[in-house]
Amino acid sequence: MSEQGPLVLIVEDEAPLRRFLRAALVAQNYRLVEAETAAEGLQRATEHNPDIVLLDLGLPDGDGLDVTSRLREWTRVPIIVLSARGQERDKVQALDAGADDYLTKPFGTSELLARIRVALRRVAERTPTEEPIVSLGEVTVDLARRLVTRAGKPVHLTPHEYKLLTTLLKYAGKVVTHKQLLKEVWGPQAVSQTHYLRVYMAQLRQKLEGDPARPRYLTTEPGVGYRLRSEDDIAGGAA
């Protein structure tokens, strides 16, 4: 089970606003990573691969629109722009650059939290299955509660293990390349670190497979990547 809430990256140079956001989000069990500049924000995004980004447009070393465009080169993470620019053209530019939502400063805590919930819910709805609960034999993954059980007992997964599992679930039945998995789970700076996958896949198999040495669900496509096989795949004799 992953007991930690979603990870939020705040890219904002105003210290008072960061304090406000920190207080509001921590109270709702969100985890935080903070950055004060565009460069630092991009670095934090690649290092931590957050679940959602709160992004100011007026950063001291660049425009948030450029940050949005750079992020969209490799991730679909939800981006909510927080800006004092309230003109329609500013909102259109941000949305065209790849932002998912736009909040004009000042804004209330309730509205911000609601926008975050909506953005995260949309991410969950992108998965091939609309079911919040996925079963793989005796393993059950409750995506809404971020809860993994095996034979009815909770399984503790580290954040990276959980993200690796849910990424494979998102592409269930399909081969996911090493590069794609590394990029989505660890960020683009890790695309050459294939040993990450060997280590974490072995850990997942130990926790979820009946026979880790002969995995039924978390299968390897030699030289290419990994695939999560569904019960339908197995019943149909898929390789």
UniProtKB/TrEMBL annotation:
Keyword match DNA-binding: yes
Domain spans labelled Response regulatory: 7-120
Transmembrane segments: none
Residue span(s) of domain OmpR/PhoB-type: 131-230
4-aspartylphosphate found at: 56
Keyword DNA-binding attributed: yes
Feature: DNA-binding region: 131-230
Domain of life according to the entry: Bacteria
Signal peptide limits: none
CDD domains: REC_OmpR_KdpE-like, trans_reg_C
Keywords, alphabetical: DNA-binding, Phosphoprotein
Record protein name field: Response regulator
Organism: Nannocystis bainbridge
